[in-house]
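Hi Q.,

Before the meeting this afternoon, I wanted you to have the 6-phosphogluconic acid prediction in hand. No need to reply - just skim if you have a minute. The sequence and ligand are here:
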Amino acid sequence: MSTTAQIGVSGLAVMGRNLARNFARNGYAVALHNRTPARTRELVAEFGQEGTFVPAESAEDFVAALERPRRLVIMVKAGDPTDAVIREFAPLLDTGDVIIDGGNAHLADTRRREQELRAQGIHFVGTGISGGEEGALHGPSIMPGGSAESYASLGPMLEKIAAKAADGAPCVTHVGADGAGHFVKMVHNGIEYADMQLIGEAYQLLRDVAGYPPKEIAGIFRAWNTGRLDSYLIEITAEVLSHVDAATGRPFVDVVADRAEQKGTGRWTVQLALELGVPVSGIAEAVFARSLSGHTALREASRGLAGPTPRALGDAEAARFADRVEQALYASKIVSYAQGFHELAAGSAEYDWRLDLGAIAAIWRGGCIIRAAFLDRIRAAYDNRPDLPSLLSDDEFAEEIAEAQDDWRAVLVGATEQGVPAPGFAAALAHYDALRAERLPAALTQGQRDFFGAHTYRRTDREGTFHTLWGGDRSEVEA
Ligand code: 6PG
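Predicted structure with the ligand bound:
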């Protein structure tokens, strides 16, 4: 077989197939490979006219079809299937070749694979790709890690197939070495979970407290989407809420089982945050809310527990409440993003990735699931001040929260009084209030730890580590 393809894609399920088509539509010759060759043939039969495809039935033919340095994208399931594909291809590759893993892999796996392949002279580029099937085809947001050298060969192609932000900038950048790409994608998904949870809570409050039916709530989200909340997730929320189930004529949202599933990237975001010591309570609440929703038997057993039954508000009050929910949603969203960016900064420090937080916000402006007008403002905040301690320290965001906070608190009072759960809103407000508190009860925690375990404490008025002789005369000794 002649060496003709500039890039190869192995793993032609929907994401891989659409990515391959995206490369081809952008003028690249694309080698194709799939474990079951029927899929490869199908792609060529259905979309062959879109560009130049070089189908290969064996790993050897696939690799032989690629120009050097070879660039091959693997789009298979995270975990063992990825290792299996790497084991198949690696012996066929040469120094300088590049394997790009476009799945949602865990950064620890990516770091391990990168190290193993580096020893063989092969670049391994763990790459976050966001935007679902449509994004893969029309332009995703792309978050490649790996070596800077691999980006030199790969970057221009990724820039071509990536989504373009409103200012025309491609939504891709070399985010950092080894596992940085998959780490950034993981945090993107954690933020996605939080965003979706907050939107879900806003919906439930509008439904149960304000008393609006789904169709009207869809209209409210549509209106919000013309303002500062303008985002893909708000847009599709309006679509989902206005959809009517053909079989029953009822709102679609009322016939779908209320048990949210998850593939795991949100959970990983929280697990890693726990290890890094970063308080991502909004993302954690989103993960827990999904898992709580799935505990059907526990929910069934708990339905009779005491609590208020929400009473819908009158029309004028409902409209006022809806405005307040918008404020609460916006303020909670800022806090969630602040938490996600905090985790990005902590991961960057831990792994020495030197992530450019402004550049990450910039490549999330288009193509990805959390794309939003808002991200341009985050980019600007980091561009203005690259050492920004938190998004909450940015003057503009701080001012917006200051304006929103009365409504944010009122919504939570209303939710609590009416017994409507709003864990994401509440976690975000608690995080905000904890950060701005002069004193936290952590001093008491330290006292308790010292009491039962002689774990020592520090003082506010002088340096050193101290212990109180709790079982004795309660005098203090320097530890
Ligand atoms: C994206 C999405 C994508 C996917 C997740 C959703 O950025 O394109 O985040 O990665 O939709 O798998 O994950 P859950 O199944 O965990 O909700």
